[in-house]
């Protein structure tokens, strides 16, 4: 199982980090060891600035290569929410040197994945999702604001990587990302359904 992540897929998030809005999907990956086990996230010792990034996650149910946009919807049946934890201080340092981001994005426990739901239960073109930190809403996103839609992402990614059953695609985060601290509690909602409940240590 591989975890494919889309960066800067909401224009307001790109702007809040001072990045240009891309004309093609920005791709990075996390190893399968990044998936968090359980509901406790431990801030790694190598970072003093770990940020949450809430995202809609797509689970691939049918593999493929060179998938066309028109048939991309046949390659996934479930969606959910996930948190892409990012060591922002480390990422900034790596970016300033023109180096890859993997150390800041792919560390153990950096990919939080909640429950999955049948995609037919939702309008994927207008799907609201939100993140609360200590009961205060910090992120509110809607898939209608995606620069690249889910089917576009699948078509693009499959030109480069063969998709396999069980692969996860993190589709990008809206504005409002921020730092986590010890004892914070994060709760994620897909529409009105709570899908994640996470404590920070």
Automatic annotation (TrEMBL):
Residue ranges occupied by any Fumarylacetoacetase-like C-terminal domain in the UniProt entry: 2-191
GO MF annotation, one: hydrolase activity
Annotated Gene3D superfamilies: Fumarylacetoacetase-like, C-terminal domain (3.90.850.10)
Residues annotated as signal peptide: none
Keyword Signal among UniProt keywords: no
InterPro entries xref list: Fumarylacetoacetase-like_C (IPR011234), Fumarylacetoacetase_C_sf (IPR036663)
Pfam families: FAA_hydrolase
Alphabetical keyword list: Hydrolase, Metal-binding
Protein's name according to its UniProt entry: Fumarylacetoacetate hydrolase family protein
């Amino acid at each position: 199982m591989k975890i494919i992540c889309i960066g800067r897929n909401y224009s307001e998030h790109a702007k809040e980090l001072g990045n240009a809005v891309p004309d093609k999907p920005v791709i990075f990956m996390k190893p399968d060891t990044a998936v968090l086990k359980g509901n406790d996230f431990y801030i790694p010792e190598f970072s003093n600035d770990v940020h949450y990034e809430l995202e809609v996650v797509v689970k691939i149910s049918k593999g493929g290569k060179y998938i066309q946009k028109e048939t991309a919807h046949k390659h996934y049946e479930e969606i959910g929410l996930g948190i892409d934890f990012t060591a922002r201080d480390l990422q900034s340092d790596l970016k300033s040197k023109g180096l890859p981001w993997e150390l800041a994005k792919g560390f153990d426990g950096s990919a939080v994945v909640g429950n999955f739901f049948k995609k037919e239960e939702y309008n994927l073109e207008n799907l609201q999702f939100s993140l609360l930190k200590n009961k205060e809403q910090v992120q509110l996103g809607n898939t209608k604001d995606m620069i690249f839609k889910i089917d576009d992402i699948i078509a693009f990614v499959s030109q480069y990587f063969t998709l396999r059953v069980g692969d996860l695609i993190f589709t990008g985060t809206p504005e409002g990302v921020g730092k986590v601290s010890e004892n914070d509690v994060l709760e994620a909602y897909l529409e009105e359904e709570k899908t994640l409940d996470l404590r920070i240590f």
